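Exercise 3.2. Students should predict the tertiary structure of the chain below and write it as structure tokens, then compare their answer with the key that follows.

Predict this chain's 3D structure.
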Amino acid sequence: MRRVRLKHNRRPFLAYRDSHGVPRIEAESYASALYGLGYMQALDRPTQILFARAVAQGRSAELISDNENLLEMDRFFRRVGLYLNLKREVELLDETVRHNLEAFCEGLNDSMLPTRRSLPMWAVGFQPEPWDVEGVLLIGNLLNFNGLAVGQQQSERLILEMVQEGIEEKRLRELFSPLLDDADLDLLRQVKISSQLSDEALELITDLPRLAGSNAWAIMPNRSESGGALLAADPHLEINRLPAIWYEAVLQFGDRYLMGATLPGCPTFGVGRTADVAWGVTYLKGDTSDYFIEDVRQHEGNWQYRRGESWHDFDVRSEIIRRKGTGEPHVFHVYSNDQGTLEGDPNQLGPGYQLLVSWIGDHEGVGRSVATWVSLVEATSAREAMNLVRECPQPTLTWVFADRRGHVGQQSAGWFPKRAPGCNGAVPPPAWDETNHWRGRLSNHMLPSEFDPPRGFVATANEPINPEAGPKLVTLPTPDYRKRRLDEELQKLPQATIRDMQRLQYDVVNVQARDLLEVFLPHLPDGEVKEKLSAWDYSYDPTSVEATIFTRLYRQVLVEIFGQDPQRGGIGWRRIVYLASRTGFSTMMVTCIDRVLMQEDSSWWAPGTKELLITAAGVHLDEELKKKPAAAWRETNAFRFTNRFFEGTLVGKALGFHTGDRAMPGCFATLFQGHLLKVAQREATFAPSYHFVTDLNTDDAWTNLPGGPSESRFSKYYRSDIPLWETGEYKHLDAWPHEEEEADEEEDGE
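Answer key:
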């Protein structure tokens, strides 16, 4: 351990770094430890923290750079209004929670404000502004909303777009069954949809903290070799942007400790443990945001919406976006009512049916979300922690807990709207009929939970989790491939070890391929495709050629079955390839498609049969492979680590901010979810962003992440963990280290 020589702290604490640069903070109280955490976060990640706030405020064109992509993103976040009501939410916080958050902000400011600006700040002329509790809550709002913006809401828009594209109605209803069973498709075809975010703006949003996928499980002592409860968690986020999304830390205060991964700018441990309790989370993908159809008109210069036969003026909020280096601010208007906010601009769309979006995260009290995370340190048992997080407003999560006494539990959490009968949350109902409006919130006591189940473990991997008696919390089709694989492998471990947990986090067997090959193989012609896939073990290991062949076969089957032009009742080959490939991948679409592929009968087989269509796909791929053999998955699924602040610049390349090509194991359906996307000119990834494994009989944790503690390219801690993450090795975090203290190092660690 190397002691960090502190220069600007006004509260007493000690800071050390282990050999991987992970900070260890020692203080007398929890508040002082959070002060130290803020201090070290600002030391290591100042640009990441401040740029994220500027984006969430809708001020990136003012503070970072005046370009059209940032301006478009600012318009998006100003319309959403994540910055609204922050003062209200701060005032509603419990006094102790507010005191702890203020201590964190004080440490962050004491570290950041007296020091020089980072290289990215200097390059764009960014001037740091003090951090405060509103900034903490804003980052929380960003995390809460961002998964919705590029997940749930995009999927609901996709359904609406496909309705309007003229795809044969019978096929469309079957594909999205039961979502469109009772839908008025004629009404949906009349809705005016605002322009999507450009690919360039969307790629910037995908770079922000958001929830996408994760695995988490806990094993009871009777299935553990050590006799203690085990917990493993690996949140899946974008991983190819440095610095890493997560910031690891170990806090010691008095005779207590807290260790795990925090989000820069927040004192919240998304994955972690204390002496008593360990936790991990997965994104529940709960539907907390709905579109409604508003009937919009202009009357005497005012835009109005209808309720029954009465018309009412929209509330209008003027947004002024100042632009860096120019005297011309950008001004636009946001139209809202008590139901939500118009997604588009009626001045551009004109009178008619338009989409209005409602999000439960706008409701009073959502600031308690951050309070829940900060208060977890007080929980002394899994049951106590479950009761605490059940009341957490946002985001929708499935929490997994294990405790020192050997108990394990799983608890779904989040605020959910109470929808009207007949409203499924995925298809927009008419807002002028007030019986379609939300009817308050669902009771948190109805959220699914499990405690010490007879099977001896709890596990979750973003599978659809809904109460047996309803209503639905997850409204869109969601795959369960990773959850099934996780359950199968855990059942095989009567005496699990830490190493077993680590191996499982790196598992790359694809259950989707296993399921679909039962359908495909009998109808494939004799040839290379059938020969190789018949002997395949379904592994998406980087060396696997079969993984590439299956991926190409799957895409070709989709072209044969769904690729007809919309005028002939299909989706169109370009659209279906886009939605099922790394370019425009839609989990919802793939789930719907796979369900159809498993059916014996379907309107999608016409005018042929499923068997003939699969055969045609196999013939086509065999011919392609004769011309050009399939590459190993390492070549098909390769990516690069790049710096999020200097991506695409000569400076970034010249100064070594980026890496060469790396092999990404796995795919969207494997536990190691190595999924690549292409957005505009930018490559995006979704993969394990943090691996955490712990035994509650000890005070240790075993971890790795794709990055390092520091955002500075010139720090030895810039990517210190990447070799571990790539090879499946784990470093050791110890609450009570016994290493000899080494010489001091400067604050910057360079």
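Discussion points: The mean pLDDT is 92. The two ends are 15 Å apart (CA to CA).
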